[in-house]
Write a structure and sequence with these properties.
Layout: E1 4-9, H1 17-26, E2 34-39, H2 63-74, E3 77-81, H3 91-103, H4 111-115, E4 119-126, H5 135-148, E5 151-159, H6 170-178
Parallel strand pairs: 1-2, 1-3, 3-4, 4-5
The structure holds flavin mononucleotide.
The site of flavin mononucleotide (FMN) has 19 residues, from α1 and β4.
């Protein structure tokens, strides 16, 4: 299967550090790897409504929800590119993940079965220089991958406050060059034995 990367951008500003870092990593992808970029600020999702236990689920076909649903199912690799906001995902990125909970129950879609074995990656920029403060974001993405039976490629981290700062983080740019070439093992919850 040809690899198809979906980049979901979750910043609240254009041309931010997270997107710059994600684009630096994406530059290294082979030409035959398809790329789709969706900026959640240009494709706003309505407030997530928890209808999991209602019976009237329908497959989303229209608007931004339909676009993201189809793009997510079509991707072999999903990259959540979210700035670090309060040590975790931005609201936009978190809302996109919340939608996955509804999509798990969409009739005829087999959302979980389709994503199982595919790969989740993260990219984030943060103002803090001590990257361990991003552990909650990393844990959110890792555990979400484990829940979905997905592989997890890790999170590419870069430092920056104002837009463009990350281009001065030479170590992050060096990591970006090989980031998507890394092994992405199946994600497992910490309590699971290998
Ligand atoms: C709402 C908000 C919350 C933030 N929270 C954190 C944080 O918890 N830790 C941190 O290091 N930086 C934090 N920052 C700084 C951003 O992570 C930083 O400016 C980053 O470069 C933004 O990425 P972007 O340019 O892709 O939007 C926060 C910024 C905003 C606007």
């Amino acid at each position: 299967m040809t690899r198809r990367f979906l980049f979901v951008l979750g910043s609240s500003r254009d041309d931010g550090n997270t997107e710059l870092l994600a684009r630096a990593a994406a530059e290294q992808l082979a030409e035959d790897v398809e790329q789709q970029w969706i900026d959640l600020s240009d494709h706003l999702l309505p407030d997530f409504e928890d209808l999991r236990h209602d019976s009237d689920h329908v497959r989303p076909t229209e608007g931004n929800v339909g676009l993201l649903f189809d793009a997510t199912l079509a991707a072999t690799d999903i990259v959540i590119a979210s700035p670090l906001y309060w040590y975790s995902l931005s609201g936009q990125a978190k809302r996109y993940l919340d939608y996955w909970s509804g999509w798990l129950r969409t009739p005829g879609a087999d959302f979980k079965g389709t994503l199982a074995g595919r790969t989740l990656w993260g990219v984030t920029a943060l103002a803090h220089e001590e990257f361990e403060v991003a552990d909650p974001l990393i844990g959110t993405l890792h555990h979400s991958a484990a829940y979905m039976g997905m592989r997890f490629g890790g999170v590419l981290l870069g430092n920056g406050s104002k837009p463009g700062d990350v281009l001065g983080d030479t170590e992050a740019l060096a990591r970006a060059k090989t980031f998507f070439a890394q092994e992405a093992p199946l994600a497992r919850f910490p309590y699971e034995t290998p």
